[in-house]
Amino acid sequence: METGTIISLALYFIVMLAIGLYGYKTSTSDVSGYMLGGRKMGPAVTALSAGASDMSGWMLMGVPGAMYLSGVSSGWIAVGLLAGALINYLIVAPRLRVYTEVANDSITIPDYFENRFADNTRILRIVSSVVIVLFFTLYTSSGVVAGGKLFESSFGLSYELGLYVTAGVVVAYTLFGGFMAVSITDFVQGCIMFVSLILVPVVALDHLGGFSAVMAQVQDINPTFLDPFVDASTGKALSVLGIISLLSWGFGYFGQPHIIVRFMAIRSVKDIKAARRIGMSWMLVTLLGAVMTGLVGIAYVANTKMTLDDPETIFIIFSQFLFHPLISGFLLAAILAAIMSTISSQLLVTSSSLTEDFYKTFVKRDASQQQLVLVGRVSVLIVALVAIYLAYDRDSSILTLVSNAWAGFGAAFGPLVVFSLYWKRMTFSGALAGIISGAATVLFWIYAPILENNATLSSLVYEILPGVLVSSFCIVAVSKLTKAPSENVTNLFEQMKTELQRT
């Protein structure tokens, strides 16, 4: 590896660890500070933290890889994501920020569900916590896989060593710095991703003769690459159901704990508007950059006659062959930034669930703040080790792992979050039915080999769509069939609306 590349990466790691130290010294004395940063995040940090934790390694590896294989048709995912993120800012963020504070200052999603529905049985907390731990461990492993692939393809190191280095640095600043460190590192990482996803496609386009020349060459290679209604990897036209399936990725935003927890931590409701503008602008530019990277990659590989074994590494190829070693190191740091920002957020949410929703609730209710922070740190380490173990399957597709976990959260929590914020008549039983039916539908869709040749239903339509529909139906049906919520629950709902109007 070039000396300049090593210097760039070393500086990146030093900055991340320094931010972790800052977070350790400023906001980890109590569990609220460790898990939510004391609810004092500004709009810029909130927006880029939410964006960076959302757009993980799949942004710089998964999306370009999908475009390289399937062409413009895979861009429907980006359209769905943009729409979902915007709606999330508009309908979820303001009410969730107010409601979680009104509902006994809830600091985790399961905590909010329990307080929102006055669940004295703790069943809702347990079930939602199990879903978080299950799907986030899978989600975290996707980021570790991306790190392993990066170190193997770029640095000539072993895949397994890449897993440990990636996870090790993230664990260090997350374990000690908590939410404050995770959010600030996400902000820095979001800035790095933004610059990189402008720089790479622009330089690559210039290298190949400009936008028109590249698009003409891609057209010559395979005309279906530029057809939004044809999957270039198969040559088959997308059905209406296929397009809806790709667009349905947007449904996932309403139920992603590592994203919506940012809304809980923002300084005030008034800051959400600014956060929305910053976040959506960032997202639009980075998604366009990722899409263009994949398309330009088609022409570049054809021109150089190279063999590309893994399409998800096309961004890495550009960084190695088109840039000075110092810039190359910066671009590789962008991939690490994308990977680490998501892993850290997921580790922290899983840790908070294990700490607040299991340890404090069932093991030691009178635990001190220092004990809870310690348990949170141990939880970060345990979840990271499990994720590394799962990531040893080097054939795992980053986009597949992400899509499965994304669908799981979107179906299990998405309808529940929206209904809980807008429907006063929703009951505890309806909430429980929504979580279980949504998660079960997704798992059945992914793993049940009931079609011809043992194919699963996910080959027909993305599992989040049936998951969201089934969950929504169960929430409404069961809520209507069960006893109306108590007066305390409905009063809390009205208090949320009053506080929202006041702010």
From TrEMBL:
It comes from the Bacteria. Keywords: Amino-acid transport, Cell inner membrane, Cell membrane, Ion transport, Membrane, Sodium, Sodium transport, Symport, Transmembrane, Transmembrane helix, Transport. The chain crosses the membrane at residues 6-24, 75-92, 123-141, 161-182, 194-218, 238-261, 282-302, 314-339, 372-392, 398-423, 430-448, 460-478. It catalyses: L-proline(in) + Na(+)(in) = L-proline(out) + Na(+)(out). It is found in: Cell inner membrane; Cell membrane. Its main location: membrane. The keyword Secreted does not apply. Pfam families: SSF (PF00474). Signal peptide: none annotated. PROSITE patterns: NA_SOLUT_SYMP_1, NA_SOLUT_SYMP_3. It is a multi-pass membrane protein. Belongs to the sodium:solute symporter (SSF) (TC 2.A.21) family. Catalyzes the sodium-dependent uptake of extracellular L-proline. This is Sodium/proline symporter.
